[in-house]
Amino acid sequence: MDSQLVQYVPVLFLLLVALAIAGGILVLSEIAGRFFNRKIASRTTQMKDTAYECGMLPIGEGSTRLSVKFYLVAMLFILFDIEVVFLYPWAVVYREVLAQNAALILGSMASFVGILFIGYIYALKKGVFDWKN
């Protein structure tokens, strides 16, 4: 029993070293921040304190609102990407598995493609593929 626990001593040591490094970096950044802010505080201006955005003045909102169409396209990408991810390995081992249990492999993939087809029909009904709007 003791020999099994001894095997975890290097892991515990690694955890302690990682925590010490993280804590040390936090403490050093706090000390350096206070030291350098004291030296630079007299030289700051309002212009230096503004956010820098590639030379442009920060006017208006920081981020723009995205259309719902963006999220629908993202969901379609996920839908069809997952389809390819599952269909490719299935097609690679199709002949070997077909000899063992033909009904199971064909039924499972038919149900999977059927569910994806329902998602495709839903996207058609919502007009996701209409790029004009």
Structural write-up:
By secondary structure, the chain is mainly α. The protein has 2 domains: 2-49; 68-126. 74% of the residues lie in helices and 0% in strands. Helix 4 (68-92) packs antiparallel against helix 6 (102-126). The radius of gyration is 29 Å and the shape is flat. It has 6 helices and no strands.
As residue ranges, the low-confidence spans are: none
Q: Count up the helices.
A: 6
The rough form would be described as: flat
Q: What is the chain-wise order of helices and strands?
A: HHHHHH
Helix content: over 70%
Strand content: under 5%
> What does the main sheet amount to?
none
Q: How many domain units? A: 2
**SS-derived structural category:** mainly alpha
Mean pLDDT comes to 81
Rounded to the nearest angstrom, the distance between the terminal CA atoms is 68 Å
Tally of extended strands? 0
What value does the Rg take, in angstroms?
A: 29 Å
Could you give the topology of this structure?
Blueprint: H1 2-6, H2 9-40, H3 46-49, H4 68-92, H5 94-100, H6 102-126
